[in-house]
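Do me a favour: review this protein, sequence plus structure tokens, and tell me how the chain folds. Record follows.
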Amino acid sequence: MKVFRYDEVPVVETTSGKLKGYFYDGTYIYKGVPYAYADRFQMPVPSHWEGVKEATSYGFVCPLMSQDTPTAELMVPHRYWPMDEHCQNLNIWTKELNPDAGKPVVVWLHGGGYSAGSSIEQTAYDGHAMCMEGDVVVVTINHRLNILGYLDLSPFGEKYANSGNAGHADMVAALQWIHDNIAQFGGNPDNVTIFGQSGGGMKVADLMQIPAADELFHRGLIMSGVADEMLMPSCVGTGEQIVKAMLAELGVAETEVEKLETLPYPELVQLYTKVMPAVAMAGGYVGNGPQVNDWFKGNPLQFGMREHARKIPLMIGSVYGEFAFAPSSFDKTALTDQERMEIVRQIYGEHTEEIAPVFLETYPGKDLTDLLNIDRVMRAPSKKLAALHARGENGGTYLYEFTLEFPMNHKIAWHCSDIPFFFHNTDKVEVCAIPGVTEKLEAQIFGAFMEFVRTGVPAEKTLPEWPEVTDEQEPTMIFDRECEVRFNFDDKLFEKINSILPSFNLMEMLASQDVQH
């Protein structure tokens, strides 16, 4: 019988006030802890409350600009939650409330680009199993998103300074709160690992480029989250043009910019959405992502990597199929070799005979028709970022690729499919239930990640040795039914694909699949 306790759980004193959580199945749990407060378009300030705050319910998540539509729930099961722009809260799982315990701290930054998602959006984000199995303190964070977190109003008043990075400032405020308080929850503030997937992975790289976050975290894991200019153009310039357009549409003078602070959120979104396309078409700043300035040094692939960032041990990975969400129109296991060639020919045409052997050499044992859905989004920029991070005196750079095939139309690994393995939550995602495979692979991935959290070097007793990326070599740990390390194994394949197909456009692909993420 699992044990629940509430009455006996002691109150925890934090820099913000007193907290009352609960105990369940070996873990103390605190939900919806306010780490900061902020008025719209303004910087966060430390939270404070009187009396004892009950931390037994998840806090509000940031409002979205469009209605979520449940889809592909078998592949990525979700949870939906009440929304409010005062969403600066976090959740904690810990095994003991001992200030001397000094356990590693693991902080999750959710996906959804810079516009959507939440700390509890996916069922796989739950921190209980990671806390129990890894003996770590787990924290997940909510912060401002979209135009609430990333719209620059700084030209219109000092109080809006750095509003183009408000969402990232929230994350820095959360990391500061963790640094100041996590010892009370058994954590070591000098051993904090941040990790995130998709937009969360981008946030990991971004935080490495923010001097204000220095010393607040010590290791990083980027999962399917390395963005280049083709995927996520950087926000440069100021918000003068977009905000003036919004005010003009609203019919108010620039001196009345404060009206944007109190406009109901749905009306603010409608206003922004109406004027944004024209500003974007003219090449102007439109926000919805972190603003490059003195506070945020910009995407390292475009603006260069800070020396401090290179000293942070870093794991970087992607999955074999990434945005291959669309259902297949054929059963690839029932095809003849000739039928496979004909299917590939629909995309590669006269180049099919030259691309096929390169693919089969790169991915022995995989089906040739996977060429239709192989990742062209994350793997190449992930390799670039790893090479950049590995230069000079670095803290260690480790690459992985998750290439598992799932028992659902023989679907190759998709965006988010590795998350349950890193969280030790495959039992919460039904499609992960592969007898004789999942339990072993989960132990290997989770074990390597927990060793990285503890030491900065990923390792697990049943995995082969995982070398660092260097100027001379690019080792990649392949996570699959049988794990192996391969060196510079897909350079030739990407070179061949890119010589045949036009440049990849994620927005066009998602539109063609009618998939939202």
Notes: The two ends are 38 Å apart (CA to CA). Residues 289 and 312 are 24 Å apart (CA to CA).
